[in-house]
Amino acid sequence: MTTPLDGIIVLDLTHVLAGPFCSTILGDLGARVIKIERPVLGDDTREFPPFKQGESAYFAALNAGKQSIALDLKAPADRAIFERLLDRADVVLENYRPGVMERLGYGFEDLRKTHPRLIYGAVSGFGHTGPEAGKPAYDMVVQARGGVMSITGPEGGPPVRVGASVGDIVAGMYLAQGILAALVQRGRTGEGAKVDIAMLDSQLAIQEHSLATTTATGVPPGPTGARHPSITPFSTYRASDGFFVIAAGNDALFAKLAQGLGCPDWVTDPRFASNGARCENVHMLKRLIEAITLEKPRDHWIALMESAGVPTARVQNMAEAIEDPQVKARNMVVPVEQREGGPSFKAAGNPIKMSTLPDRQARGPAPLLDADREAILGWLDAAG
Amino acid sequence: MTTPLDGIIVLDLTHVLAGPFCSTILGDLGARVIKIERPVLGDDTREFPPFKQGESAYFAALNAGKQSIALDLKAPADRAIFERLLDRADVVLENYRPGVMERLGYGFEDLRKTHPRLIYGAVSGFGHTGPEAGKPAYDMVVQARGGVMSITGPEGGPPVRVGASVGDIVAGMYLAQGILAALVQRGRTGEGAKVDIAMLDSQLAIQEHSLATTTATGVPPGPTGARHPSITPFSTYRASDGFFVIAAGNDALFAKLAQGLGCPDWVTDPRFASNGARCENVHMLKRLIEAITLEKPRDHWIALMESAGVPTARVQNMAEAIEDPQVKARNMVVPVEQREGGPSFKAAGNPIKMSTLPDRQARGPAPLLDADREAILGWLDAAG
Asked: Among A7, A161, A205, A232, which residue has the fewest nearby CB atoms (within 10 Å)?
């Protein structure tokens, strides 16, 4: 089967998270990703804990299946190699501060003259335009400025960050979308494009309800802990051994819940008779529910909710999520192929399941720094 | 300028969030999105608060610029219209439970026979395969099962949900990537594809550090509030009027921070002399920093950090984020065009900035239910 991006060559100059997250997506879709790292140190994440046999599990998960060559883009011999790679490439990705690629002579305006079909993807903290275009950013900086921290955390409590690095990851996903759109477009016009993704922009784009609410009412929402701001009961609840979710989104589901918990009279109790009343008495209702659910473990309540037809879920830690039967059935945690004598790692599977793309049962090995230099040079020579 | 998806027709049968989020992305890239809604009620989010002149701001933000036609896919006359639309479509999106489209006669295997170029995109809670394929899910159900709640929240406290609905949104983004990849592939092979996205899968895919850490060490990480788990100081801090971020990722930045706060001796204090020592004394250091920063407002400290060269940010609520000069310069909050006499709304701008895609200064109007029926039927007739 020919994969969607079969034969597409991606030169990936990015490091850490947003850019490598994007090139993983392109690789999952069939592209060949050549990671171009700085000599000696390589990608910063090679030093991110935890380690196995001196190799970073974090690096391995984000770079499995990619090739690595170390190039100093200021050194003439390495620049010559990079330029031969550019002649073969469909996509180049970079996450330098704006201006750095221009100073190297590889800015988009330079490259479009010599490589009009090349697609140039940039991801940066604040983008390549605007008053703060040049400033550095980190995941937490854009989580803070973009508003997601202000709606995440306990009600009335201090802001917390989203535990997954959505400041980087969402930007990497938008970059992948821009690159794919540019490939569609190039298929029609023959011309490349520049894609300019800002981490801060990407945070605004995921504020589905808070942006609409704030612009319509003038009042920005705050955090609501684990509960839905306008549906009750729709939150986490304590069992004897941990938390689980009850998502009773309407009166019929609330009736099933009340019946299941042995409290059918809740349905006619004026404090709980409508969603509006339940929202007004949300803390009271939570205590009444937990007075029951604290008596037994989560699995008991999950089974009871499922038989009652009330949407539910365990709040799983990552060890539990990895062992979740549905996660396993969907091939969402896969081994990273081991190099001979090297450590074994695991990584997330490909979430894009397509009828025209085999769902791989493992990811290729994570490359040691510069491990593919000879193979890449040989390929360039063979291609002439 | 011809946009990347110029001329692409998307039939969008989805409602609420994940699917409409995907079709917004495709629309931003130039596709024409025809929203096919159930008669009378339409998309559930038409009833989501807040409202202006009886119209939902939430619906408007997610559906601006789309067309609407109401069709009952069980009624012969409406099925005939849907089938005429299928003849013109490039993409169909649905978020029914697995099996519903098959019972309507519009499953992927049916459609591929009659429309081999059609790209079929499905998004569901758990996907179209696996033991729980048929179960319903909500954003919070997959946030809980997929692990993101277990790493989000105050240290040692109860789990909280991510304030933005990443359970839906990330799935919608992966669906957009799959559709775009299928368009690239169809450009080469002439054949369509099915894309099957699960909200739960998508949550696993964004667990960049916790999945790697858990599989490498066996120990799942817990929540760490607003601080980075292994870099100090890298967290939120209290000023007199709110929270701000200090992201001092290495010794040099810590020295600049200490100097800026008037405490140069911190650098040689054995409690804080290295990142490891600072991590061990993270709570002590936080109190020392806040003993200073609580005295003055955020803007004072942001200016001081910036002049010292320490990455920083305000923790902004959505009202502040919308007014952020960089957000404005990047066109990331745009008006939704007003229908005559209709309410005015705003929505997020397009975060995919491309040299080959004009950055629109406004989104098209949000459609009333079935508002485009006549225009769509006229277009079908004109096309023959």
From this structure: A7
Shared domain for A36 and A172, answered yes or no, is yes
The verdict on residue A294 lying in a domain is: yes
Q: How confident is the model at residue B1 (pLDDT cuts 50, 70, 90)?
A: low
pLDDT of residue B384: 61
Structural domain tally of chain B? 2
State the residue range of the domain holding A375. 9-206+325-383
3-state secondary structure of A146: coil
| A190 inside 8 A of chain B by CB | no
One domain, residues A130 and A60: yes
Interface of B with A in 255-284 (CB under 8 A): none
Helices and strands, number each (H, E), in chain A: 16, 14
Are residue B148 and residue B288 in the same domain, yes or no? no
Chain A residue with Cα closest to B50: A213
Cβ distance B214 to A351 less than 8 Å, yes or no, reads no
Domain with A196 in it: what CATH number? 3.40.50.10540
Taking CB atoms and an 8 Å limit, are A311 and B52 in contact across chains? no
Dump the DSSP string for A233-278: SEEEEEETTEEEEEE--SHHHHHHHHHHTT-GGGGT-TTTSSHHHH
- For B25-54, the pLDDT digits (tens) are 999 999 999 999 999 999 999 998 899 999
State the average pLDDT over residues A33-45. 96
Per residue in A310-348, is it b (16+ CB within 10 Å) or e — as a string?
bbbbbbbbbbbbbebebbeebbbbbebeeeeebbebbbb
Please tell me the least confidently modeled range out of A98-107, A327-336, B275-284, B363-372.
B275-284
pLDDT in tens, B133-153: 988 888 999 999 999 999 999
Question: Which residues on B lie below 8 Å from A125 (Cβ)?
Answer: none
Q: Is A209 a catalytic residue?
A: no
Clarify whether residues A153 and A289 are in a common domain. Answer: no
**Cα angle value A380/A382/A383 (rounded, 5°):** 65
Whether residues A84 and A135 share a domain: the answer is: yes
Spatial separation of the C-alpha atoms in residues A28 and A331, rounded to whole Å: 13
In a domain, B79, yes or no: yes
Of A149, A318, A345, the CB nearest to B207: A318
pLDDT-based confidence at residue A216 (cuts at 50, 70, 90): very high
Q: Do B306 and B238 lie in a common domain?
A: yes
What was the pLDDT predicted at B137? 87
Boundary (domain end) residue, out of A261, A288, A316: A316
Pair (A154, A266) in one structural domain? no
Task: Tell me the ipTM for this assembly.
Answer: 0.96
State yes or no: pLDDT of A384 exceeds 70.
no
Averaged pLDDT of chain A = 95
CATH code of residue A311: 3.30.1540.10
Report CB contact under 8 Å: B198, A320. Answer: no
Q: Establish if A221 belongs to a structural domain.
A: no
Smallest CA-to-CA distance from A326 within B199, B214, B102, B194 is with: B199
Q: Three-class SS of residue B54? A: coil
Interface test with A, best of B138, B199, B324, B332 (most A CBs within 10 A): B332
Predicted confidence (pLDDT) per residue in A120-149, tens digit: 999 999 999 999 998 888 899 999 999 999
Please check whether residue B95 touches A, CB under 8 A.
no
Partner-chain contact A127 B50, CB within 8 Å = no
Q: Which of A115, A128, A228, A300 is catalytic?
A: A228
- Cβ–Cβ below 8 Å for B352 and A174: yes
Task: Please tell me whether residues B89 and B55 are part of one structural domain.
Answer: yes
